[in-house]
Design a protein that fits this description.
11 strands; 199 residues; mainly beta; 35% strand; eleven-stranded mixed sheet
Length: 199
């Protein structure tokens, strides 16, 4: 019988958490670092696959020294009913649920009205250039390798935590400060665009 050491379990959980958060953070912040992020080899695994309201694949957060950044990942609903994420919190910043959308022919970032719905037996990507969990005002730098605990609240009042690892990411050089709802510098006005960490 094969056994797994506590260190191996911790490393797997950390890699998984980082990957999911990364999928959410890259869409919302700018980075001075030329480095980029890429999900690790366990990117296809779910954090807490047997527990919680949803599974969370590849969680990560975009590293940032100050201001705003974002958390990313893929939410997986294995249940028979739709679930709605209505809010998110973390100890290092107030958070909002955001989306990128076309407005007056331009791509803008704005609060996601009605929350983020994860369809029954479906998935919902939190990614750069799409829906994401926005960290609004960092109280401390979030450096590559840091682990952040994020708490999701759902429409029925249930909550769920996941851990995301910070990664450097340059993406499309988005800048989300200071004006929400204004066109994003350096972003294409192409609906459905998707930006992902690259190596």
């Amino acid at each position: 019988m094969r056994t797994t050491s506590p260190l191996g379990l911790r490393r797997s959980a950390t890699v998984l958490a980082a990957a999911v958060l990364a999928a959410g953070v890259a869409g919302c912040g700018s980075s001075d670092s030329p480095a980029t992020a890429q999900p690790g080899p366990s990117a296809s695994a779910s954090a807490n696959p047997d527990a919680g309201v949803v599974g969370i694949r590849d969680p990560w957060v975009k590293a940032a020294d100050k201001g705003m950044t974002a958390a990313f990942g893929t939410l997986v609903n294995n249940g028979d009913s739709d679930v709605t994420v209505t809010s998110a919190t973390t100890s290092v910043s107030p958070m909002e649920l955001h989306e990128m959308a076309m407005q007056d022919g331009k791509m803008v970032m704005r609060p996601k009205q009605g929350g983020i719905v994860v369809k029954a037996r479906g998935t919902h990507a939190l990614e750069p250039g799409g829906d994401h969990l926005m960290l609004m005002n960092l109280t401390r730098p979030v450096q590559a390798g840091d682990e952040l605990t994020v708490t999701l609240t759902f429409g029925d009042g249930r909550t769920q935590q996941f851990t995301a690892v910070a990664k450097p990411f340059t993406g499309a050089q988005e800048s989300y400060a200071p004006g929400h709802g204004e066109p994003m510098t350096g972003m294409s006005a192409t609906p459905g665009m998707s930006m992902s960490p690259t190596s």
